[in-house]
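Q: Got a minute? One more chain.
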Amino acid sequence: MSKVPSKNLNNGVAMPQLGFGVWQVEDDEATRAVATALEAGYRSIDTAAVYGNEEGTGKALAASGIAREELFVTTKLWNSASETWTRDSVLREFDASLAKLGLEYVDLYLIHWPRAMRDDYLTIWRTFEEIAADGRAKAIGTSNFQPAHLRRLLDETSVVPAVNQVELHPQLQQSEARAFHAEHGIATEAWSPLGQGKGLLEVPTIVAIAQKHGRTPAQIVLRWHLQLGNVVIPKSVTPSRIQENIDVFGFELDTEDLTAIAALDEGKRLGPNPDEFDYS
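A: Always. Here it is, folded:
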C-alpha cells in the first residue's frame, strides 16, 4: 500500500498529494524511472503529450502489476499554436494520449498552457467537459492558468477545474494563485517544486532547516509543500533520490521553519510567464 496521503478534489476524486513527474525524461528512460517510482510507493504519475514519454510511462504502468484503480495518471494537452483547436482536434489528441499510455481513461487531464492571446481555451475546456462526462477523464484541470484565466472559465463554462498545476517553490510561492484556488475549490499542484535544482537547495535557510531535522534540503522543501496543502510532483531518474523524495511523511516543519521559508519568496520564475508564453 502507498503511504502517500490523498486529497479529495472538488468532484470527489481522490488524488495522491505526492506524485512522480517525468518532464525532460526520454521515453525509454521513463519506463525505468516510473517502474522505480512505483516500486518505491508512488501511485500518481504525471506526464504530458509534449514530453514524448507517454508510451514509456504506459509500459511501466502495464508491467507494474498494480491494479489500475490504485494508480492516478495525469497527462496534458499540448495546445500548440500549430493547431486551430476545435472539439475534434482536442478529442483526437486525447485519444492519441490514451493510446500511447495504453489506458482506457486517465485520472486527470490538463490544458498545458492558457495561450490566452489565441483565445481558444474555452473551446478546449468545453471539450474537456465532454471527455469528463464520458468518464474518460476522472477529473479535468488546467496548467499554468493565472487567476484571470480561471475566472473566465468559471464565468463562461460549467465545470470548475479540479486542479491548476503551476510553477511553485519557495522562491515563487504563488500566494495570489493559491488564495484564488482555495476560494474556488481548485487544488494547487506544484511543478518544479524543488526549483529545478537551480540554487534553491543550497539556500542557507533551507540547509539550516534540513540540518535541524536531520533531513535533506529536498525533503524540507517537499515537506513545506505538503504542509501548505499543495499537490507536488518531484522528478528524478536517480533511484536514491526517487526514494528520498517520497520519504517525507515521518516529520513535520514547525512554525519557525514555515515562517523562515515564507521569507524566501522572491517572485522568481524559472519557467515562462503564462500571460506571455506562446509556442509552436
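A: The radius of gyration is 18 Å.
Q: Perfect, thanks.
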